[in-house]
Amino acid sequence: MEPTYTDRYANLIEDPVMKAYFSQLPGYIQAQIRARKQQPATLEELQRMVDEVKQLF
Length: 57
Prior knowledge:
mainly alpha; 4 helices
């Protein structure tokens, strides 16, 4: 059975690799990622979102 999350960013906390990657990002990028409706489910999705945010700035 897969874990269910009540917090849409709980998987960032549960996955140590994603947590480490996310925590080293500048605050403005973290804020943009948190503001999105769709949560990143994998490290690759998180990295893609970061690339999209960087293109905006």
